[in-house]
Write a structure and sequence with these properties.
Structural class: mainly alpha
Number of helices: 15
Distance between the termini: 38 Å
Radius of gyration: 21 Å
Strand content: under 5%
Helix content: 55-70%
Length: about 250
């Protein structure tokens, strides 16, 4: 039983969006196609948010993870239940602007569960300044973890590299998520990243600028740059080629 798609259906969370690729990584002829994709995305987003979540975001963005999970488990996903989705389509706008509906669903299902504080300070009992302060602290740790992982700015990456002996990531990582790919790519998975992306096959892809890809990989593995998102994309594209397109 999984809670996947709950935030997307009940709170209109948008989990993916078009981003400008790293400068100089792709062949210039592709830039127009990137812009077209961004315009297509913007047009779809202007429609009904529930339709976007159920018929666009779930199959386009989340299916890869679902397919991986299904190799090991038989999954049931209540938040894509037809009756629930119909109800959300009919819900008034005000019911989807905050967490009240989600908290109500939890309480209706199990009042004891409603008393458990979430990792971002929702639910639970009590109030007053200590509770407010604790919620703000948890929200800070949530944002700090992202900023110290995938979202780390390049100038922070340079400072972090200079202070590497202090292992500052221990202060920020692990509060909310178990996966930390910026550090994994730099350390434990560095050999795999180098083997995959600096292989002559990878560097010969016609849509890539090979020297720029080398710079991205080497900068991230050194630790003074953060190219987590770019490495995500390059590994995905390369695996796609090797599994589906390259001659066997």
């Amino acid at each position: 039983m999984t809670g996947n798609y709950g935030s997307e259906v009940l709170r209109r969370a948008v989990a993916f969006k078009p981003t400008v690729p790293a400068e100089g990584l792709f062949n210039p002829e592709l830039l127009e196609h990137f812009r077209d994709a961004g315009e297509t995305y913007s047009g779809l987003l202007r429609g009904n948010p529930v339709s976007f979540a159920v018929f666009r975001q779930a199959p386009w963005h989340h299916y890869g993870l679902l397919a991986l999970e299904q190799t090991q488990l038989s999954l049931r996903t209540p938040y894509l239940d037809n009756d629930l989705v119909r109800t959300v389509f009919r819900a008034p706008e005000s019911a989807l602007l905050n967490n009240d509906a989600c908290v109500r669903l939890i309480a209706d299902g199990d009042a004891k569960l409603r008393e458990i504080l979430t990792d971002r300070g929702l639910n639970g009992n009590g109030g007053g300044l200590p509770r407010f302060a604790y919620q703000n602290f948890l929200e800070f740790t949530f944002r700090a973890e992202y900023a110290y992982d995938t979202g780390m700015p390049q100038w922070v990456a340079r400072i972090d590299h200079l202070l590497a002996p202090l292992r500052l990531e221990r202060l920020f990582l692990g509060w909310h998520k178990f996966h930390h790919f910026r550090v994994w790519y730099r350390d434990a998975l560095s050999g795999y990243v180098r083997e995959m992306l600096l292989d002559p096959r990878s560097l010969s892809r016609p849509y890539l600028e090979p020297q720029r890809l080398k710079t991205i990989v080497e900068g991230h593995l050194k630790g003074n740059r953060n190219y987590t998102s770019e490495i995500h994309k390059m590994l995905t594209l390369e695996l796609f080629h090797r599994v589906f397109m390259d001659p066997k």
